[in-house]
Each structure stands twice: as C-alpha cells, then as structure tokens.
Amino acid sequence: MDAMDKRSYSTPRWVQVWFLRRSRDNWKRKSKELRTKAKRLQNCVNDVTRSREKWREQTKQTDQRVKELEAENAALREQAALKKDGRRG
C-alpha cells in the first residue's frame, strides 16, 4: 500500500499553464457576458419605470381634464335648462 500512496502524477508545466489560462479566460468571458446582460436588463427596467411614471402623470392630467369637462358640461346643461324654461314661461 505504501507504493500506491507514493504514486504521484506529474503534469508538464505548459499543460498546467494552458489549462489555468483557459479556465481564467472562460471565467472572464462569462463574467463579462453576465455584466452585459445585467446592464441590458437594468436599462429595460429603467425604460419601463420611466414609461410607467409618464403614463401615470398623463392619467392624472386626463382625470383632471375629465372632471373639468364634466363640471363645464353640467353648468352648460343647467344654463340650457334655464333658457328652455324661460322661453316657455
């Protein structure tokens, strides 16, 4: 059993360098791809957030305009009703 424990595997230095360099390069490539993807997704989130805020602002303005027009419409109907009643009388 001592003979088996003393067995050593020796890999040439150039193979180790090649393997480690390849491993490092793959890690860097994956990291760069993930950073790019994260940036792209963050830009999408920012665009959607900005769009949603703009939509909410427009909705508020539209709601306010609708209320103004409803009030104006009610006032005009009231004036029309008074004129109509005044002619008959």
Describe what you observe in this structure:
The longest helix has 76 residues, at 13-88. This protein has one domain. The chain has 89 residues and is mainly alpha-helical. The model has no long low-confidence stretch (mean pLDDT 90). 90% of the residues lie in helices and 0% in strands. It has helices at 2-5, 13-88.
Summary of the model, kept short:
This protein has 89 residues and is mainly alpha-helical. It has helices at 2-5, 13-88. The protein has one domain (26-88).
Annotate the secondary structure layout.
Layout: H1 2-5, H2 13-88
Mean pLDDT: 90
Radius of gyration: 38 Å
Number of DSSP helices? Answer: 2
How many beta strands in the DSSP annotation? 0
What are the secondary-structure elements, in order, as H or E? Answer: HH
Ranges where pLDDT stays below 50 over 5 or more residues in a row are: none
Shape: rod-shaped
Largest sheet: none
